[in-house]
Design goal:
Elements (H helix, E strand, L loop, with lengths): L10 H9 L2 H23 L4 H8 L3 H9 L6 H11 L9 H6 L18
Helix pairs in contact: 3-4
Length: 118
């Protein structure tokens, strides 16, 4: 198994990251992962920002915000983006709760919740 060597962040960004608590870092990471998924889906469909903005009925600057990871999305917006790009950002399955309590749901078949990253 290949190990990934972590480097200490430096400069202004490094100082900002060091000052963030784990919850804040997790939120930033999630926004960046959503932004990456949007960009990947746009690329797969050969859409540039201008074309995607027109498809979504949004401004190019709003799409730019989405792709920079600066946007905190609503569930409705994530659904609309997913519909337009043919991807899913939300899973409403409760696999983790069912898996954690097999006595309550003994006959329920489930798949473990696994995060996927680009």
């Amino acid at each position: 198994m290949k190990t990934i060597e972590k480097k200490k962040a430096s400069g202004t960004l490094g100082r900002m990251v060091q000052e963030m608590d784990s919850n804040s870092l997790a939120k930033v990471r999630n926004r960046m992962m959503v932004a990456a998924k949007i960009a990947e889906a746009m690329q797969a469909r050969h859409l540039n920002q201008k074309q995607f903005a027109k498809l979504m009925g949004r401004t190019e600057s709003e799409i730019s915000d989405w792709l920079s990871g600066d946007r905190n999305f609503t569930i409705d917006t994530l659904f609309e983006i997913g519909q337009a790009l043919g991807v899913s950002f939300l899973s409403t399955a409760l696999h983790y709760s069912i898996a954690d309590d097999p006595k309550r749901y003994p006959d329920y078949e489930y798949e473990p919740l696994v995060a996927s990253e680009p």
